[in-house]
Amino acid sequence: MTDLHTSIDKFQFNNVFMNASGVRCYTKDELDELAQSDAGTLVTKSATQTKRLGNPSPRYAPLELGSINSMGLPNEGLEYYLDYALDFQKAHPEKPIFLSVAGLSMEENLAMAHTIENSDFNGLVEFNLSCPNVPGKPQTGYDFDRTQEVLTNLFDFFTKPAGVKLPPYFDLAQFDQMATILNQFPLKFVNSINSLGNGLMIDPETDTALIKPKGGFGGIGGAYAKPIALANVRAFAQRLDPKIQLIGTGGVTNGRDAYDLILAGASLVQVGTLLQEEGTVAFTRLTRELRAVMQTKGYNAISDFRGQLKVLS
Ligand code: DHB
C-alpha cells in the first residue's frame, strides 16, 4: 500500500493532507470534525489575542475556479484555540496539531507568542504574516524590513517549533530577499501560499462586487492559485536551508494537484477552497487520488518524489 506518511521536524503525520487555516477550523466542533477526517493533522483558525467578529457579510463567495473571501479575521481569540490544542494533545498525543496566530500588530504577535511559549502547548505554531483582509493593515510578508523585525523580536525568546505563513510573491528578487531573511531564523517550516490578495469579482446580473467588505476586494483561492502556489513552493525549496521544510497550499482540487506541490518540495499539503466547498470528505477523495497517482508512477512513499521536479534542459 502506498504510504502518505510525512514529517515536519520531529513531528510525524500519517497523511500529507490537512486544512488550510481559516477553513472549517473556527469552532471546536469544526476542529473535531477535521480531527476525525482522513486529514493527517489540522490547523486552527488564525487567532488574535481577543475574539473578533470580522468583516460584514457576504464575505466569502465560491467562484467558477475557486473562491474570494474577505473574512477579516473572525476568530474566538487565542485562549479558545490554545485550550482546544491543550485538550487535543492530551487526548491524541500521537497527532500533533498546528496553532495559527495572526496579530494585527507586532506587539500583539509577540504577546501571543509569549502566551504560547509559557503554555504547555507542544505542537507547531504557524505565525501568519499574510492576512490580506483587515482594512488598514498591510500584510507583514510584503514588507521585508518589518518581517525581519518581527522574526528577530520573536525568536529573541520563542523556543517552540514554529513556522510562517507567507503571501504569494511574483518576482524572483522577492524570493531571494525573503529566503535570506527566513534563513536567519530557527524556523521549522514555511507555508506557501496564502490567498492571492485583493482580487475582485463582479456579479454579471447586478454589476455589483460579489462580496461586501473592502469594496469587494478579497483573497482569491482555489484553482486560480495553483501555478502561483507551485512556483512559490519551488522557489522557496530552492532557496531555504533544508532544515526549513515547506507546506504547500494553493489550488488543490485533486490528487494530482497535491502530487505537483510535493514534486515542487512540499512536505504537507493544505486544502482551503475545496475543503470549504466539499467538506471533510474531500480528504478521502484526495487521499485516494494521490495514492493512485503514486501507484501509476511507481512510488510507495512521499519521500520518493518530494522535491523531484524535473525541468527542461
Ligand atoms: C483571513 C484571511 C487570510 O487569508 C488569513 O491569512 C487570515 C485571516 C481572514 O480574512 O479572516
TrEMBL record:
Active site (record annotation): C131 (nucleophile)
Catalytic activity: (S)-dihydroorotate + A = orotate + AH2; (S)-dihydroorotate + fumarate = orotate + succinate
Pathway note: Pyrimidine metabolism; UMP biosynthesis via de novo pathway
Binding residues annotated for FMN, in chain numbering: S21, K45, S46, N128, K165, I193, G222, G250, G251, G272, T273
Gene3D superfamilies: Aldolase class I, Dihydroorotate Dehydrogenase A, chain A, domain 2
Biological processes annotated in GO: 'de novo' pyrimidine nucleobase biosynthetic process; 'de novo' UMP biosynthetic process
A GO MF term: dihydroorotate dehydrogenase (fumarate) activity
Keyword presence, Flavoprotein: yes
Co-factor note (free text): Binds 1 FMN per subunit.
Alphabetized InterPro entries for the sequence: Aldolase_TIM (IPR013785), DHO_dehydrogenase (IPR050074), DHOD_1A (IPR033886), Dihydro_DH_chainA_dom2 (IPR023359), Dihydroorotate_DH_1 (IPR024920), Dihydroorotate_DH_1_2 (IPR012135), Dihydroorotate_DH_cat (IPR005720), Dihydroorotate_DH_CS (IPR001295)
Keywords: Cytoplasm, Flavoprotein, FMN, Oxidoreductase, Pyrimidine biosynthesis
PROSITE patterns linked to this entry: DHODEHASE_1, DHODEHASE_2
Cofactor(s) recorded in Swiss-Prot or TrEMBL: FMN
Enzyme Commission numbers on file: 1.3.-.-
EC supergroup of this enzyme: oxidoreductase
Keyword Cytoplasm: yes
Any Pfam family: DHO_dh
SUPFAM superfamilies in the cross-refs: FMN-linked oxidoreductases
Main localization category: cytoplasm
NCBIfam families: PRK02506.1 (NF002702)
Stated name of the protein: Dihydroorotate dehydrogenase
